[in-house]
Amino acid sequence: MKDLMLVHIFGADRPGITSAVSSLLAQYGVDILDMGQAVIHDALSLGMLIRIPEGGEAAAVVKDLLYQAHEMGISCKFTPVSSEGYSHWVDAAGKPRWIVTLLGRTISAGQVAAVAQVLTANGLNIQSVNRLTGRPPLDDADAQRPACIEFSVRGNPGDVRAMRMAFLAIAADMGVDIALQEDNAFRRNRRLVAFDMDSTLIRVEVIDELAKAWGVGEQVSAITESAMRGELDFRQSLAKRLSLLKGMPSEMLEKVAEHIPLNDGAEKLVRNLKRFGYKTAVISGGFTYFGEKLQAKLGIDYVHANKLRIVDGKLTGEVDGEIVDAQRKAELLQSIARNENISLMQTIAVGDGANDLPMLNLAGLGIAFRAKPVVKEGAGHAISTLGLDAVLYLLGFRDRDME
Questions:
Q1: Is 389 noted as a catalytic residue in this protein?
Q2: Choice among 3, 177, 198, 389 that is catalytic
Q3: What is the pLDDT of residue 145?
């Protein structure tokens, strides 16, 4: 009978440990059925599930490994594994995998405990934990530095939506963001990121800024807020707001555009997405004039928005062509995906308003960015504590990967 054994090696990390251990095992013709390693603060934990060939001497393997561990100043522990235990481990490989991403300015034990409790309550087991952000110095004075750890978990949760709602409640209570994604091939192969523009890529609502410049700011802002909360139909709210801009000289568009700020992390996010080969799009209920300005500045691939109608150098209070409302946003995401010959599961959509929800729900990954509660709940994933570049962590990128 072939002996199965779990070998656990731990101690101070240094180069050559894996080489020495595997070379010794090779002398006995040992098969390595599974292997994992973690190093935390220069402390090594290396595990190997090994199979000693029939006729081999398990006692000799153990004796030589113990001797070598002593020589290297590390410790070694052995646990026999039964064939039934091994079969149970193999059968567990069929369970779905999930990725839980915890984001904040700092990561506390309380936050990790809250996440772990939700996972346990839903029958999920943590397989591995990885830090995606860099090592923070003790005297770090940068209050804006992000902190992110990623849990790889396995199991069959009974109610995924209920889990997401539990994570949203923890996030609101503890000032963090928590995302739950199924760890499938699409999650590792996203190809297109589509953004809403106003209050997502940029920090303001353009129509509000135009209204301020035209002297009707309060009236338009009230309608905008109501629309973002989902209390007004987008088409009706757009028509009401645009009517208040009737007669505005078109040259004022340029003056407003000069003072529109990008949202935190927008440039870093788009720059890195382009570097990694992603396509990017603006799909907005805002205006093409400003979307095209962003396209030139950031290198966005696609821009779809509403075109302001201008006659004799003045805004008419109307738009040309089909209005980009909630349903149209979803249709445009589908159209771009077809054009790029990719699955919708390979798309990501980021937005903040109720009119973004159809697009967020259609995408493989929909992210509510600094959004109202109803949008966070509808999207299932939310980023509220960090900038837009936190999207990169949800894709699994580490700080060392980014420019």
A1: no
A2: 198
A3: 86
